[in-house]
Amino acid sequence: MTVKLNAQRFTQMKQSGGYYVTVIEDTRVGRLIGAATLTVEQKFIHNCSLRGRLEDVVVNDTYRGKQLGKLIVVTVSLLAQEVGCYKMSLDCKDKLIKFYETLGYKMEAGNSNAMNMR
């Protein structure tokens, strides 16, 4: 049931456009061990240019410390450039700021607060 539901959700995301899901698979055991999503939106104020958001970055605990998080973030960032994003952004926990800074992401003075409404 879960596999079928996940496949349906993936199909919905694919059909709506603007979602690029990148995964890392351990082919030796046929298991997904990491993933990240690039969401792309057109920004009216930038002549409908594309803005990318890095979301849902995750690596299985067993595989951490092997540079896979770096690999998937760099891959998604390059994908954003390839599809024409003028800007990439992300929200992260404070403890991950240094990690993302090593990959070229920067805190913007006066614009570093992530706010949410749920």
From TrEMBL:
<dbReference type="InterPro" id="IPR039143">
    <property type="entry name" value="GNPNAT1-like"/>
</dbReference>
<feature type="domain" description="N-acetyltransferase">
    <location>
        <begin position="1"/>
        <end position="118"/>
    </location>
</feature>
<dbReference type="InterPro" id="IPR016181">
    <property type="entry name" value="Acyl_CoA_acyltransferase"/>
</dbReference>
<comment type="similarity">
    <text>Belongs to the acetyltransferase family. GNA1 subfamily.</text>
</comment>
<dbReference type="GO" id="GO:0006048">
    <property type="term" value="P:UDP-N-acetylglucosamine biosynthetic process"/>
</dbReference>
<dbReference type="Pfam" id="PF00583">
    <property type="entry name" value="Acetyltransf_1"/>
</dbReference>
<protein>
    <recommendedName>
        <fullName>Glucosamine 6-phosphate N-acetyltransferase</fullName>
        <ecNumber>2.3.1.4</ecNumber>
    </recommendedName>
</protein>
<keyword id="KW-0012">Acyltransferase</keyword>
<dbReference type="GO" id="GO:0004343">
    <property type="term" value="F:glucosamine 6-phosphate N-acetyltransferase activity"/>
</dbReference>
<comment type="pathway">
    <text>Nucleotide-sugar biosynthesis; UDP-N-acetyl-alpha-D-glucosamine biosynthesis; N-acetyl-alpha-D-glucosamine 1-phosphate from alpha-D-glucosamine 6-phosphate (route I): step 1/2.</text>
</comment>
<dbReference type="InterPro" id="IPR000182">
    <property type="entry name" value="GNAT_dom"/>
</dbReference>
<keyword id="KW-0808">Transferase</keyword>
